Amino acid sequence: MRTTWLKLVLAAASVLFTGSALAGETRARQILDRFEHANQWRDHVMVAAHRAGSLQARKTLFAENSIAALEASIALGAEIVEVDVRRSKDGEFVVMHDSWLDRTTNCKGEVVKRTLAELKTCKLVIEGTGAVTDEPVSTLREMLMATRDRILVNIDNKLDVDSLAGMIAVARDLGMAEQVIVKENLWNPARITTVKALAVFASLPRETYGFWAERGATIIQTDEPKAAIDWLAANGYRVPYSDEARPANTASIN
Description:
Elements: E1 12-16, H1 27-36, E2 46-49, E3 55-56, E4 59-60, H2 67-76, E5 80-87, E6 93-95, H3 116-119, E7 123-125, E8 132-136, H4 140-147, E9 152-157, H5 164-173, E10 180-185, H6 189-196, H7 205-213, E11 219-222, H8 225-234
Helix pairs in contact: 7-8
C-alpha cells in the first residue's frame, strides 16, 4: 500500500505552458484564473487529486490514473488531477505511474516493452482489493480529452526531460495547453526524508490540510480529494465557483 500523505506542488518544479485561450468561461478557465492569480484567492485552497484521485474515506474506490477516478474527482470539485506519463514500445505516451504493469493492471512486464495495442489489452486494477476494472490503460491524449474545459491536468513526467516537448505537443494539438501543468521532480535524499516525516500527520486533517492552508498554501495535492475539499470548505478555505466577478475587497499579498 503506498503512503497516502499529502504532497504539495512546491515539491517539484511546475511550469504552466500557455497556448490558445480556452473558449468562454469554462470551468477550467475559472480554475486557471485562480491558479494564475493565487494572491487574490488566499481564502481558497485548490485541491489536486494525486494519480487522478482513487481514495475516498481511506478506501480505494477507483484504479489510479483512471478515467473513472478523474470523473469522480471532477464531480467532487477538485481543480487539478495529477497523472503520470510513460511511453509504450512504439513511442505513444500512456498514463501509468510504475515502469512495470504488475501492480496497477492485470498484465505483467515493463510498460516500455509493450506496444500501445498490447497495452490496450491490459485492464486497470483497483489497488488493495485487486478488482479488475473494464478500463484499459489510457493514452495521454485520451486522458486530456476527458478533461477538456473541466479541470487542470498536472503531468508528472516519468521519462527524460526531452520527452516534455512531445507531451506538450499533444496538449497543443488538442488546443489544451492552458490546462496543462508539467512537473519535473527535483528530489534529493534530504528533501525526501523531510517530507516523509510529515506522513505521521496523514490521518489528522488539522495537522495536514490546516498546517499548509494556514501557512499560505494555495494548492494541496492528495490521494483523497473528497476529504480535503470537505475539510477545507468546513474551515473557510474554499470559495464556490460562479459567474460572478471576484469581489474588489479580496485580500492580496502582492
